[in-house]
Amino acid sequence: MFIAHLSDPHIRTGPLAGEPAANLHHVLARILVLQPRPDCVVITGDLCEYGHPGAYPDLRTLTEGFPIPIHLAAGNHDDPEALLTTFGGSPFLGGTAATRYRVDYPAASIIVLDSRRSGSPAGLLGDEQLAWLDGTLARRADVPAFVCLHHPPVPIGIPFLDGMRLDDGAALAEVISRHRHVARVLAGHVHRVIFVPFAGTTLTIAPSTYRQSALRLHDAQPPGYLAEPTGYLLH
Predict the structure, then answer these.
(1) How far apart are CA 147 and CA 45, in angstroms?
(2) Which pLDDT band, with edges at 50, 70 and 90, does 52 fall under?
(3) Over 90: is that where the pLDDT of 16 sits?
């Protein structure tokens, strides 16, 4: 099974809407020419820049009719109500009216979590969602699972971004470590490619399809964002 992993398209409205939309369009076009084609695409959050309700229909226009299933995760920039209004009940959210869900393929399970924390750029899963993940992972332990969320559960070396990572990353690690069939944990938020061991598996952070963060490794000031080439990961 092949999974294309995108993140942080930051689709927006207004006069600056063209660049992030064009970049996402170009990445999706690049995925279509892969041979063999991926079985699905996962986009790990910050789907829209300001959570503006008008941006989600534009995101749907960019992705509707794409011949490979796309699964969406919510990020700290997203508005869950606007996301559900546009995508609820569709395959983009696993056919559910929720921002956490599971999609089973013959060769793997895709489990999407909602790590948004209201009023904060940092992330939080919470006890109830972690218990749901634990039970969901236990249901199909004979095939690999990919756990997808927006916020990285560990520090990645950019102090500004480490200050807004997943607050209950240790609790997530405890759950993941109980399920040896978790092949990857997929995240976004950092706008950089990161690979790191995590809870007996591998945490992979995809680049943004919009702009990449500068490697400001020495202090907690905002890193700034660079117009570097857009990209994605292939698992």
Answers:
(1) 13
(2) confident
(3) no
Determine contact, residues 190/161, Cβ cutoff 8 Å: yes
Mean pLDDT of 102-121: 96
Would the pTM count as exceeding 0.85?
yes
Give the DSSP per-residue string, the chain.
--EEEE----B--STT-HHHHHHHHHHHHHHHT-SSPPSEEEEES--BSS--TTHHHHHHHHHTT-SS-EEEE--TT--HHHHHHHHTTSGGGTTSSSSSEEEE-SS-EEEE---EETTEEEE--HHHHHHHHHHHHHTTTTS-EEEE-SS-SS--S-HHHHTTSBTTHHHHHHHHHT-TTEEEEEE-SSSS-EEEEETTEEEEEPPPSS-EEP---SSSS---EE-PPP--EE-
Cis peptide upstream of residue 36 (ω within 30 degrees of 0): yes
Rounded CA gap, 136 and 110, in Å? 11
- Residue 202, both tokens: 């591998």
Q: Which residues contact 172 (CB under 8 A, 6 or more apart)?
A: 125, 130, 133, 153, 166, 185, 199
Query: Among residues 62, 104, 97, which one has the least CA distance to residue 80?
Result: 97
